[in-house]
Amino acid sequence: MSTETAAQAEDRATAPPPAGWEEARARVYAVGLSAALPAVSRSLADLDGHTLAEPLTTRTDLPAFPTSSVDGWAVRGEGPWRVVGRVLAGNRPAPLTEEGSTVEIATGAMVPEGTTAILRVEESTRTGDGRVDGTPRPTPEWREPGEEAYSGEELLPAGTPVDPALIGLAASCGHDTLRVRRAPRAALLVFGDELLTKGPPAAGRVRDALGPAVPAWLRRYGCQVRPSDVVGPVADTLPAHVAAVRSALAGADLVCTTGGTMHGPVDHLHPTLAALGADYVVNTVAVRPGFPMLLARLVSDDGRVRFVAGLPGNPQSAIVALVSLVAPLLAGLQGRPMPVLPHATLAEPIAGRGDYTHLALVRLDRAAGTAHPVRHVGSAMLRGLAGADGFAVVRPGTTGAVGDRVPIVPLPLLPGERSW
């Protein structure tokens, strides 16, 4: 027998129909982008994990001057050549003005003006009178200015995640600081008096699987989550929920909650959002598993925008909510492009879910470009998720047949890892 109150039944009855999955993703991304985190200047040592707020351009030609590609001899004219000096990396050499002259040159050193060729040291010999002889290769053995990029050229667009490779490139371009958007700060509130935080499930209580896992997923999406930002289980009362959400919002750009997204007797998330003056961006999404999920927005008196993502209590459904709503929101907040979904060919059939989008856990064979459904994929199960690479998208009103090309929602990777 249901214990739903009359007020809860009225709220449920007047709730808007669920948003389509693709519509929800687009709506959430647009809202995140409109509230993108402010740009700040950071030193190269403090850039990793941030996002470019401006395009990365070069301050000089790359290389900035002719640079020797090998150790050897910078020569002018025909040999044998008379040695007149040495050029090491970091020095500005005098021009070679005399025919038949040469200077010893190190890899990376500036090529003297007047050089007609560079002779590799391993392909040279010394004559009895101390001159250098040999046959230079026909192709130049130095890098020309602008060979990699010209001064002012855009190398990477705004919205590019900063990784070690980008930091090194920025340094080579002559930058000491860059304008970036910081990583969003996130918090997690775990709802449910039935949850245990240690030991095996017993006596009607289940182990909390989301409290330890969701922060790690959020970090893979570029968030900062400290251990103190994870709170729960929060008592199943409205005052406790309001106090917990209000406290978490004080220091976070995004607060994720687990459980409480329905309208049952101990589901207090919707009343909490009403008490805090939140507006729904998305209130339920037509996707299975993952129903119901939500995203709400709060604007403080100083104009600061923060978000609450309501994840279902069932573990796999919560991860579906993360990839469906949280991922595009975080992309927008960081000024990154909307994630483009790769495609794969179904190696086995996947059932549809009627009017709902079906996100089906799959393992990818990257060499073959195929997707294989995994087992143990119930909403409350995590076994299938642990062996999966992402979700195959089966659109409403369709089924996934063998050979169909379908979008894939990849599970988030560690920073620096490359998607398939």
Automatic annotation (TrEMBL):
The lineage of its organism: Bacteria, Bacillati, Actinomycetota, Actinomycetes, Micromonosporales. Pathway: Cofactor biosynthesis; molybdopterin biosynthesis. Residues 126-146 have a biased composition (Basic and acidic residues). It is an enzyme of class 2 (transferase). Residues 187-332 form the MoaB/Mog domain. Pfam families: MoCF_biosynth, MoeA_C, MoeA_N. SUPFAM superfamilies: MoeA C-terminal domain-like, MoeA N-terminal region -like, Molybdenum cofactor biosynthesis proteins. It catalyses: adenylyl-molybdopterin + molybdate = Mo-molybdopterin + AMP + H(+). This is Molybdopterin molybdenumtransferase. GO terms for biological process: Mo-molybdopterin cofactor biosynthetic process. Keywords: Magnesium, Metal-binding, Molybdenum, Molybdenum cofactor biosynthesis, Transferase. InterPro entries: MoaB/Mog-like_dom_sf (IPR036425), MoaB/Mog_dom (IPR001453), MoeA-like (IPR038987), MoeA_C_domain_IV (IPR005111), MoeA_C_domain_IV_sf (IPR036688), MoeA_linker/N (IPR005110), MoeA_linker/N_sf (IPR036135). Belongs to the MoeA family. GO terms for cellular component: cytosol. It comes from the Bacteria. Its EC number is 2.10.1.1. Its cofactor is Mg(2+). Residues 1-21, 126-147 are annotated as: Disordered. One of its GO terms (molecular function) is molybdopterin molybdotransferase activity. Catalyzes the insertion of molybdate into adenylated molybdopterin with the concomitant release of AMP.
